Amino acid sequence: MAISESGRRRWLWAVAAALQGTALFLTFTRASILLGGVAGALLLLYYLRLRLAALVAALCVAFIVATTALACGPQSVVVVPPPTGSPPPGGLPTALDRFGDPSDRLALWYSAGRMTLDYPIFGVGLGRMVDVMREYPARYVNTPYGKATNSAHNTILLAGAETGVLGALSTLGINIVVALLALQALILRRRFPEVVAAALAALAFLAQGMVNNLFTVPATGTLLAVLVGILVAAGHDEPPVPAEPG
Question: Which stretches of the chain are assigned E, i.e. beta strand?
Fold first, then answer.
């Protein structure tokens, strides 16, 4: 919206974008932060809005520093020790590691791949990968790459484990079609920054889907449907040519 507007409205939209960038940094993890930053930078560079890019980046840094200083300062934390002096159930709270991840992706992918080969026709059923892993830990939890402690964290491999080989191939096909729609929008719809932004967001979504289960999360799956709707509608923005009489 900042790219499309001019004057004061452009800078107001830039502030809104910086607030969204701050929220992304504070509420999501590595892949989202990295891909969101890359997609935003590519969008601004695509339209050569260098001053706008510098302003949004500076505002993001300022908002992040101000928010973390306010929320994480010593005065914002009140620690009440237990009456007995013993640590609370579950131990003392630890700092949130925004860039760490207890799930080894190679172990998760290996487990999903093995499950797909074991159940190639129908898979183990939607939402049942983790249940089957717990039922057969020797086969699916203990892998050559370490312990698999979660579901596949890959949209294609998860589809294979839960719906079989045909499900994995279908999900791969969906990824390819959406990627082609996004690339087409980048090339043909340059005069519509909102459509180009949707295309970059869709590509970032597909990329993150290789390390997360975004298709199966209702909120993110719904957002992908919105992005695809924008891309499809953008391909039909020209008015139809009226048929000649007779």
Answer: 142-143, 146-147
Supply φ then ψ for residue 245, to 5 degrees: -60, 145
Angle between helices 50-72 and 8-27 (to 10 degrees): 50
Q: What Rg, from alpha-carbon coordinates, does the chain have?
A: 23
Global confidence as pTM: 0.76
How far apart are alpha carbons 204 and 200 in whole angstroms? 6
Length of the chain: 246
Distance CA 68, CA 186 (A): 36
Give the whole-angstrom CA distance, residue 169 versus residue 222: 21
Q: Residue 46: how many CB atoms within 10 A of its CB?
A: 15
Comparing CA positions, the residue from 20, 96, 9, 118 lying closest to residue 63 is 20
Q: Terminal CA-to-CA distance of the chain, rounded, Å?
A: 45
Alpha carbon of residue 175 to chain centroid: 14
Q: With CA atoms as reference, report the closest residue to 224 among 246, 202, 199, 245.
A: 202
Q: Which residue has the tokens 């698999």?
A: 148
Cα–Cα distance, 142 to 191 (Å, whole number)? 52
pLDDT tens by residue, 189-204: 888 888 999 999 999 9
**b/e string for 144-163 if b means 16 or more Cβ within 10 A?**
eeebbebbbbbbbbbbbbbb
- pLDDT, tens digit (0-9, with 9 covering 90-100), for 199-234: 999 999 999 999 888 888 888 888 889 999 988 888
